[in-house]
Each structure stands twice: as structure tokens, then as C-alpha cells.
Amino acid sequence: MFNINTRAGIFACLITLSLSTTASFAQQSTGKEEGFEQFTAILNKMLQSNPEILAAQAAVVAATHGLKGAELPLNNPEIGIESERTDTNYFAFSYSQTIDWHDKQKGRQRVAQSELSSALAELESLRLALGSELLETMGKLASNEQITALSKQRTVILNRFVQLAEKRFSAGDISRSEQELANLSLSEAIMQHAGNAAALIQSRGDYSRLTGEEPDARLTFPNQLPTQLPNTASDTTLIEQHPDFRVAWQLAQVARLQIRNTGLERKVDPVFTVTGGRDADETLIGVSLAIPLTFRNNFSSSVDIARAQSLQAEQQMQQVKRTLSARIKNARERYMLVSGAWSQWLTRGNISLQQRIEILEVQWQSGEISTSDYLLQVQQTLDTRITSAELHGNQWSAWVDWLSGSGTLSDWFNLSN
Question: Are 95 and 104 in contact (CB under 8 A)?
Fold first, then answer.
């Protein structure tokens, strides 16, 4: 039989695990402001240094220069000089100017303005996507940290149990099958811990990929999330204000403007030329007008292409609208479901598990249950702890899905542009 010191050692390990996990949850729930300020700082730093963001910002700069260029006159003048020395001297100077008769420059300016708005919307959409991905990664990182710590503690407890089982087997207190069952339990715990540790390594790698830095060991997992999602705007308003929809709308706007612009581009512009010079003793002054003919190719196919592309962009915008509507609905329902389960865990789960450990300890010391039954129930208790950590991570993931689907991430974290 085990002596009281051995039993006390196992129980002390279990109590330490329970208290450390409860303390971890208590630490995480300290003050929404402190926890979210840390997340805001990490998000802002990433959004200011991420290469994809910098590339999108460069695209905005390029579109800005494109607009400046579109505001300038469309056609530059041309000059010509002609000289001939024979029996008589000939010299002529010409000045030609293509006239923007159909105001093509204005059309190009409108397209360039819309392209700039599209680039800005794409930048905002990318900020939302990367910010949501980083928040999701930080949630997985915090959740995997908890799960890995719990699974490690389980291997410690079961390893101690295996050592005690070997002593009891040597003393003839338990059978070979009971000893092998203990070894199998430890092997299973080791494999599960390896899988959890691998998931943790993956989360750290994802964090480094997004931020270019190693995860902060002091990163806390906020425990207090909104119990109710804000209902300040209708789903239609959320969709229309969503960066992804604004990107699709701007692209559709560009495509619509391209139809008109392409129609203007196929129209010909006259070229006026003024010529002055001398031929021998005579003064030459001439004016000419040239108009290109389009009877061989009127470029009507380019307008048909623009119309088809506009229809394509319009349908893509409608699909984005449909997708966002489904995302908002699903994210809201998922968050309320998981958040309700997590709230129940906070109010009843921790207390129930703590009481469970105390009851098991009393039953064990009084001999009401065997050591194997005691450790089996303790392992079930640890599995419940791990499941609660997974539920916490699911709540965080559902909340991030809501922020991403509703496009309210920047508002919640007060992210800087």
C-alpha cells in the first residue's frame, strides 16, 4: 500500500495544478483595458511594419501619382522644322496640337480617382484581414499555451503513478494488467502532449510570420469578452461599411467608368497644324486640319469588353455582399453559443472541479476508492480542464470572426491608420 507521504505528494501535485490553472484564469480576467491595450499595441506595431501592408501603401502612393498624372493635359504639342537648300532656299516651321475634342482627359481623371479610392479600400481590407489573422493567432497561441501546460502536468502525474504502480507490482499488490494499463495511460499522455506542443510551435511560427518577432512571453489571454454583441447598426449597414464590400464596390465603380472612358477613347481627335516659313523670297503661312478615319476599325469591341468586365465586377460585388451577410449571421450565432457555454463554465465549472478534487481526496484517504479509480477520475478532471481551455480559445476565435465579419475590428481596438 502507498504511504501517506506518497499520497500527499500526488494530491499536492493535483492541487497545485488546479490552483495554478484557476490563478491563470483569474490573472487573465484582470481588467479589460489592460489586456486589450496590449493587443492594440501589438496590432498597431504589426500594421505599421508588415510587408504586405507596406506594399499596399505603396500601391496607394502609385494610385495618387496616377491621379496627378490624369489631371494634366492629355496631349502635348509637336513642333517641326524643315529646311531645304537648292537653287532656292526653303525653310518652314510647324506647330501641331491634338485637340481633346471629347474631353478624354476628364474621363481618365474620373477613372484614376476611382482607382485611388479602390487602392485605399484594398489597404483597409488588408489591414482588417491581417489584423484578424493576428488576433486569431494570438488566441490560438494563448490557448495552446494553456493546453500544453495542462498536458505536461498530466504526464507528470501519470509518470508518478507509473512509478508507484511498479512498486506495487513488485510488492504483489497489483496485477501485470494493471501495471500495463498505467504504462499505456502514460504513453497516451506523452503522445497527446507532443501533439499539443507541436500545435504551440505552429502558433508561435504563425505569430512570427505576421509580426516578424517572437511571441511575448507576457502575452495574456483576456478572459472578459462582451457578453452581448453590439447591435448599433443593422446587418445591411455593417455590410455597406465593410472594407471588403467597399473594395468590391470601388472595383465595380471603376469598371462602370471604364465603359464611358473606353467609348471616349475610340473617338478620334482632330490635329491642328500651323506652318510658317519662306520659300525663296516668298513668305509661307499655312493651316491644316487632320482627322483620323476609323472606317476600317472603329474599336467597338473594346467597349463590349468594358461592358462585360463591368458586369463581372458587379456580380462579384453581389457575391461579396452575400458572403458578408452569411459571415455576420454565422459569427453572431457562433459567438453567442460559445460565449454562453464559457459563461456557464466560469460560474459553475471551476467551483465544481475544485469541489470534485476535494471530494476525491477525502474518498481516497478514507479508502472508499482505489488509487487507480482516483487517478482515473483525476485524469477526467484534467481532460475537463483542457476542454475548458479549448472552449476559451473557441470563444476568442468566434469573437474575432465577428470583428472580422462585421468589419468593426479597428473601432474596437482603436487602431491607428
Answer: no
Torsion of CA 162, 167, 173, 179, to 10 degrees: 30
What is the dihedral sign for C-alpha 124, 228, 139, 331?
A: negative
Q: Give burial (CB, 10 Å; 0-12/13-18/19+) of 291.
A: exposed
Q: Is 31 left (phi over 0), alpha (psi -120 to 50) or beta?
A: left
Q: Residue 130 corresponds to which amino acid?
A: L
Beta carbons within 10 angstroms of residue 49's beta carbon: 12
Percent of the chain exceeding pLDDT 70 equals 82
**pTM of the predicted structure, to 2 decimals:** 0.78
Buried b (16+ CB within 10 A) or exposed e, 390-414: ebbbbbbbbbbbbbbbbbbbbebbe
Residue 360 burial by CB count (10 A; 0-12/13-18/19+): exposed, middle or buried? buried
How far apart are the two ends of the chain, measured CA to CA in Å? 67
Q: Is the pLDDT of residue 368 over 90?
A: no
Split at pLDDT 50, 70, 90, the class of 367 is: low
Distance CA 341, CA 362 (A): 30
Q: Position of cell 496607394?
A: 60
- Alpha-carbon dihedral of residues 204, 206, 212, 218, nearest 10 degrees? -40
Give the CA distances from residue 408 to residues 129, 137, 325, 342, in Å, rounded to whole numbers and listed in that order.
12, 18, 14, 23
Tell which residue, 216, 138, 30, has the closest CA to residue 393: 138
